[in-house]
Amino acid sequence: MSGRTIPTPGPGSRSSARAIRIADVAGRPDAKVGLSNVTLAYLKRRIWRSLRKRGEVGDPAYAELSCGYLLSLRSEDMSPPVVKTFWKRGDNGRWSREERATGGGLNRNWSASQILRRDDPLAEPRYASLTFGEKPSDTGATERPEAFAALWDARPDLALDLAADGAVEPVSRLGVRVLKANPGFLKSVDAAALLRLLRSVDVAAQGLGFSEARDRLASGEADPALLAALLAADFPEARRLAVTRIDRDPSLPWSDAGLGLAALTSPHDDLSDTVPRWAGERRVDAVVGAELADRLGAWLLAIAPEPEEATQALIRRVRERIGALWRDGDMPIGHAAIDAFAHPAAAVVAAGIDILALAGADVSSVPNERWAALLGSFETDVQSAALRLFGRLDDDTLASHASLVVAFATAPSSELRRAARPLVVRLAARDPGLAERLSRDLIDSLFRTAPDEAYPGDVVALLKEATPAQVAAIDPGTLWRLLQARAKGAQLLGSTEIQNRPASQLSVRQIARLGNHPHLAARTWALAAFRDDPGRFQNEAEDAVLLVESDWDDAQEFARSYFDGWPEDAWSPAALAVVTDSVKPDVLAFARRLLRSRLAPGDAAAQLTRLLEHPAQSMHLLATELMTEDAAASEEAFDKLLPLARIVMLQVHKGRIAKDRVTAFLLKEALRDRGRAERVAPLFADLSIAGVARDRAAAILALRDIGAAHPGIETPLNRRAAPVRAA
Amino acid sequence: MNFVHRYFGATSASSDALSTALAFAPDLLREPTYFVGKVRRHLPFREAISALHHVVVSDLRFKPKDRTAYFAWLKDHEEQLLAEAVAERGAVRERIDALRVEFADIHKLSSEIMRPFYGAQKRYFDWLYQNNRDAWFVLDPVITVHPDEVFFECFSLDESTYGRLSCDHDVFERVEEMACGTTNIDYSHALYDEFQKIRSYRDTSLTIEPSGFEVQTAGEANFREEKIDLPDSWMRGFLQVSSAMAQPAHVVDLAPVDMHAILSRLAAKRERHGPRSLRFLLEPDKPVEVLIEPWNDRLTFRRSIYKGSEPAEIRIWGRRRLAILERALPLAKSVRLHLLGSGLPSFAVVDYGGLRFTLGLSGWTANDWSRAGQFDLLAPRTEVDETTAQKVFDALKGQHFATVPELAFETGLDRSIVAGALGLYVQAGRAMYDLDKGVYRLRELVRDPLKPGALRFSSEQEEKADRFVAARLVTIGSVDTREGKRVSGEVMDDGKTHHPRLVIDADDRLSTAACDCWFYGHNKLMRGPCEHMLALRRLYHLEVEGKPRAFRAEGVA
User: Fold this and answer.
1) Between vectors from CA A575 to CA A573 and to CA A578, what angle results, nearest 5°?
2) Mutation target among A92, A571, A689 for the B interface, most CBs of B within 10 A
3) Please, what's the b/e burial string for B88-114 (b: 16 or more CB within 10 A of its CB; e: otherwise)?
4) B182/B26 Cα distance (integer angstroms)
5) Residues in domain SWIM-type (chain B) (predicted)?
6) Do B256 and A686 touch (CB under 8 A)?
7) Which residues contact A101 (CB under 8 A, 6 or more apart)?
8) Do B10 and A690 touch (CB under 8 A)?
9) Which helix (H) or strand (E) holds B302?
10) Omega before B345 cis (within 30°)?
């Protein structure tokens, strides 16, 4: 019975085989096999035999048939290698392991392996299984392992096909070997052939094409077709080579229509800046320009009816590039450009509209219905191109469509807004009333949530270009509202416009608050105001020091160094209080330093009463440093001290130093003055049952001393006589 | 559960040399509620509202150590480690050593190159932590304005801690505009920093902005809608704690320094094993004693005498949450504890005189099925028909707050009926019981009233267990207390008797359980306990663990 054995996956890395009888599956629609093992082996041997016979007699058809066969192979025909470990005895007699990869590539394809590796001393044909294996590595390699190398040498054109079009690496490598062995042929091929090599899937073939192109350019040749081929190559080294060559010749790339088209239509990102630079700096003459415009038109018409996103993006780039190249409005216009209007793809239609504009066409004759169709298109590309064309109308005609143009200025699409901007600028320059209304409406819109990320930037740019006088006339109150608004657009306009205003327009407090503005420009302006007029800020120190509350590192650093430089007399207690009232650790550290260095003795009492109310533990410690008899002399200060003392003493496992200082101070005051003792005693009475032994002991001893100093003051202590012990 | 809030503007807080202004933006989708007043008692207000903030951000859930960096390192070095393990000596080892040196050099170079990036990344995450903490809140706190007081309520992220700050109107120097009602406020973490700037020498104004209700124009930039997806478990936890406030409790009066002693002792040590409860030992007319497990440290508060009529021993867990009171204690006049029972919610009311901060703790920090006690909190106490209940609610609505006798007088209904109806509304989040003043208050927790009983059960098994217990189909067979507590019993389910067995550890947690039902047989405990285990657990808690309830101190202001 004839059958076929097919491999099946097994557990782990093992695989097993399953036998199928051909008779069982013959004729079934779901049959996975059709030939028996014997038949399959026969055909394999037969194919190679047919080729081998031709090769042995030197028939040139061998190369053609082999080429056709090899070009039909795909990556699915390759098999992964199996790595096996073999024991090998070295020269020193010791055995070591050697890993060999077997079974990979086209080794299971008998004919392909014969074609590619029959003369390879490392290859081991296995006639039983009709596969190729690997021989040990020390048997040496050869440069031309393929069968009948001479027949290949006689047909280097076929080698070019293999190298350029081979879908798998072993096939294209055969082509590369043959081409390398026939350098003269490679030198004679045209640029199109080199482009094929540059576009090969095989790196070696790409490299071969690149080397040849480089050698040609180095010899002084500047074949535009070759440069175009290099620009179109898929790897950046080739494109860089072309760019370098083109940069050296001011007439390129626009002296050749083919090269010009290749540049204009290059989709590669690394050319996105280079081509516009060429377009801006180099001119195209009329003759070449006409041919270039025709070819461009043909290229546009060849675009698919529904182009992919990448193609649409490329068309937009092309539009920008031709806009730079024919910025004087002298682009030749051909039939293809007209036909672009009828193309189903909106991107192509938009390109056609751009070409009309660049050709300096008379747009005044375009009927209104046509404008309505173009400007009312559902496609943003078409609308934006139509807007640019619309901009070629004279001012009077444009003014009659003012409301339409202004509507585009606030359209949902950033591209449309940008396209409409120059038109709005013209309208506003012509009609001050429109400028006034427009600025009011746009500024109001900035206070609302922006419809997209680019809206604030677009509207602010429009305001600055179209209504500069109205923006400059924004009153300080509105400017402050803009700066303080949550909406990003309002903040942007505010921080942009504040750069043009003198610091006198805002109060010291407002300027200090600007130090916390999310826009760097606003903060920079505020800090410059501090620098430029220090006297003003020192005179209003309480408001100026609000700058320390900024959340931004730049403003904080500035504030610390700025206020460090203030003289002592600038620091009023109220100004110190603003700094000390902060909750930021950095600012508090700064505040403590200020207090220790700047606090006048006479102000200690005032500062103490303020510090006593600070919730931060670090400030409690500072407050205890300032706690002196003089500072707490007033009853007001002492009244405020008691709640602080309670807060400090009832901290849980924190503030030991502050606790000890407070205890010592209160005890001292209590012993000195009966009135104070009466007010302090309840606190010590509470602490006499505290959970921490140290606090409890200190409180009990304090109550004992108070009781002794001021008899009559109630304490929770009960004195018991010590027991008398017999001697 | 999805909720939508609409705010005009944003809550803001600003301070300068002369004043601090706190302006809260109310939810405009609710009935107009606003308040404008100037704070008179600055420091107590500051301390109390700071403590409330700590409740809002409290999250004591277990967070496993982040070992991703270790696993990434292990993966990178896996081959090296394996090679070292199997490498032969001699040449291979030399090669490994050489490669290791090379790898170390490369790693060092890589670290140098990447240091600015990692530093910037860390700074960004630190900034995010500092500046985006608002993402931590589940539901913005609610403010209720009543004719006698203004109060704030909130519930923590970990669903275990409730906070309430109530301010009598005389806490404010001047009260201007006011409209009674309940609203959500747009709360943000930045407010906490501004709270710290409250001083007695600065005017501090508290405003729940009325201006938003006057602006009718839609599309204004300052209108903001926020949609919140609230977990059912969070809402259930809130309602359970809120419902517990209306239950009878043992009332314990402590001095602030007594609570300070408890917190000091807890802060001084860290327990490594259970049990982890605070055990309150209450004997009538004797000083309150607290036993801190597992060290059995005994604290006796000689100046705090228990005034209850019956002795009680009550254990509470999740005691670390009490650390929230650290901030609130120093300026307090007194602390009153309301203890419902072991494993049940407890409340600490810190009184400043005119200002009161209430900290409510659920039975345990992790409010999951392994603990009993929460199941009955949302159970209806008395059967009340809808019309009668609505009558009681309308009466309450008319006055905003009232006692049970007052409402019984106004409606002409029996007090037990009134209490039962009010209990239903408390469980639905439409009213709350004020522990300070002993009154029921109208308080709509959410804009659209919840259906009573909608959140009572967290699972189908809980609901079934409730039916078993209510129908008396559960019996306790035996209790073995030799090693922990081993409880076995019988549950009659659809004509078949099941035999659940429970093991309860020293922390009263259900450490393991078994049953002969289908649910346990297929899922073991991976989907939680079966209804038979839950029913037995509930019955055991009710009949064996539960302590007799003490009287509730009524009429205390």
Assistant:
1) 110
2) A689
3) eeeeeeeeeeeeeeeeeeeeeeeeeee
4) 9
5) 500-541
6) yes
7) A81, A82, A83, A84, A134
8) no
9) strand B297-305
10) no
Does residue A272 sit in helix, strand or coil? coil
Compute the nearest-CA separation of A502 from chain B (Å).
24
Q: In this predicted complex, what is the ipTM? A: 0.74
pLDDT digits (tens, 9 = 90+) for B343-391: 788 999 999 999 999 999 887 665 555 455 555 555 555 677 888 889 9
pLDDT of residue B551: 31
Q: How far apart are CA A234 and CA A209, in angstroms?
A: 12
Nearest to B302 among A448, A653, A689 (CB): A689
**Is B326's CB within 8 Å of A577's CB?**
no
Structure tokens at A502: 């003198």
Q: Tokens standing for A91?
A: 């020269």
Contact A650 B256 (CB under 8 A): yes
Q: Return contacts of A54-57, CB within 8 angstroms, 24+ apart.
A: A55/A147, A55/A148, A55/A151, A56/A148
Assess contact for A490 and A519: CB atoms under 8 A: no
* Contact between residue B303 and residue B255 where contact means Cβ atoms under 8 Å apart: yes
> Residue A295: pLDDT band by 50, 70, 90 thresholds?
very high
CA angle B32, B37, B40 (to 5 degrees): 150
Q: What is the pLDDT of residues B438-475, one digit of tens each?
A: 899 999 887 777 776 666 666 778 888 888 988 999 99
Average pLDDT, chain A: 88
The pLDDT assigned to A640 comes to 79
* C-alpha to C-alpha distance for B274 and B111, rounded to whole angstroms: 44
User: A-side interface with B, Cβ within 8 Å?
Assistant: 447-449, 485-487, 509, 542-543, 546, 551, 574-575, 577-578, 581-583, 609-610, 613, 615-616, 640, 643, 646-647, 649-653, 686-687, 689-692
Which position has the token pair 């407002």? Answer: A510
* Residue numbers in A near B17 (CB within 8 A): 542-543, 574-575, 577-578
B303, amino acid identity:
R
